[in-house]
Amino acid sequence: MKLFHIFLVALVLFSACKKKVEKTADIEAQSTPDFVVAFGSCNMSQEQNPFWDDILAENPDVWIWGGDIVYADTDDVERLKSIYAMQDTVAGYAKLRNEVPVIGTWDDHDFGLNDGGADFAIKSESQQVFLDFMGVPKDSERRTQEGVYTSHEYEVPAGKIKVIVLDTRYFRSELIKDEDSKKRYKPTKDSTATVLGEAQWQWLENELNGSDADFNLIMSSIQVLSGEHGFETWGNFPLEVKKLENIIVRSGAKGVIILSGDRHISEFSRADVVGLSYPLVDFTSSGLTHSYASFSGEPNQYRVGEVISEKSYGVITFDFEKKEADMKMKGDNGVLLQELKQSY
After folding, report:
1. 3-state secondary structure of 72
2. Of 78, 152, 258, 338, whose CB neighbour count within 10 A is largest?
3. pLDDT score recorded for residue 324
4. Which domain does 324 fall in, by range?
């Protein structure tokens, strides 16, 4: 009887443990996303970035730089190289880079000129320094094209993600200063003014038209939908905004989401575009090492939720079966600052 009692207790314990393991496994299966994207912008290599360990803890499938990877603001190529090199020595970033694919684009401060565009004297030299930093092979076609735009595809058993990385600097037309208000810039009426340039526009259209991805992320260093604040934005080129929307609609691409940075604030913008079967979201995540702490408000007719004016990074988790993207702004230690779930 004693041996039988011991056997019975052991069996009960084993069954209890088995149920606990199965329950834990079920919870993990339910909570594990199909694909995770982390991204951010506005990073001073000489300043403390508190997020690298938090970003790695998100277990992302890719990290996307949204621009202003470093603050160089120089036309001295050697100085530009040295500032990028400083970023590579940051231990937390080096660990992330060794464990997670890193892609992305530049904005004005890593391009080399604040609010700079097509007229920047060393843009071609700056492009090569940027590609060096991103680890692009010397024989890559990106070394001979003008501009740093590119695309990446990621396929997992559940589905496919496409990331389209834009260059909003190399070809961008001159900004029009606003002399009539307190805003910095105003929208141009010039129908020939451009954000992307002819070659990149054609490339983008082809990328969207040919995409069979379940979700298509478009990384624009500057905001697309928020266009009323008077700083840098696609809104300074309203015909270009309309052109982008039309291309997205005509392409039939699934799950298009815009990612942006630049502003030192984070916010969600969402617009209903005629002909598009889902809302177009512009997820702005900025900045990583410094933010617009004195932010006191600005208009944005497309804003969803509140502006986050503290330092943060962005995370998007994708559920292919539900056709859902869960977008989160995160702070230090992975604290959730704001969230937007969108079905597609």
Report:
1. coil
2. 258
3. 98
4. 38-343
